[in-house]
Structures are given as structure tokens and as C-alpha cells.
Design a protein that fits this description.
This protein is an all-alpha fold. Helix content is 79%, strand content 0%.
Length: 73
């Protein structure tokens, strides 16, 4: 079963290789407004992902501290 799944995945990658190439940010002109907007979009998405992950980590620490406080009582 795994052998067939690997073949299917490799087949899909071989068929869709044109869509898996680098985006316009990687091969575009650096002074082009479209490239600049893509760069800023990537930065904004990284900031959103970072803030969500930071919130998740802080929530886990908060739950851990509350659990330790309850156990120690």
C-alpha cells in the first residue's frame, strides 16, 4: 500500500512540476512593485504565524503553571 502511495505522490510531482517552481519573489525583478508586494505579504504572513505560535506557547505555559499551582495546594 505504501509503495503505491509513493508512486502516486511521485507521479503527481512529475505532472505538476511547472506549478512547483519558485514564486515571483524568487525570480522576479527586485524593483518591480509586484515583487515588493509579494515580499511584504510574506513578511506579514510570517508575523501572523509567529504571533499565533507565540500565543499558543504562552497558553501552554499558563496551563502548566495553573496545574502546578493546583497540585501544590
Amino acid at each position: 500500500m505504501i509503495k503505491y502511495c509513493n508512486r502516486i505522490i511521485i507521479g503527481v510531482f512529475m505532472i505538476m512540476n511547472n506549478y512547483l517552481l519558485a514564486c515571483a519573489t524568487c525570480y522576479g525583478a527586485p524593483d518591480d512593485p509586484a515583487s515588493k508586494s509579494l515580499n511584504y505579504a510574506i513578511i506579514v504572513l510570517l508575523a501572523f504565524i509567529g504571533s499565533v505560535l507565540l500565543g499558543l506557547i504562552l497558553s501552554i505555559f499558563s496551563i502548566r503553571n495553573k496545574t502546578k499551582a493546583i497540585i501544590s495546594d
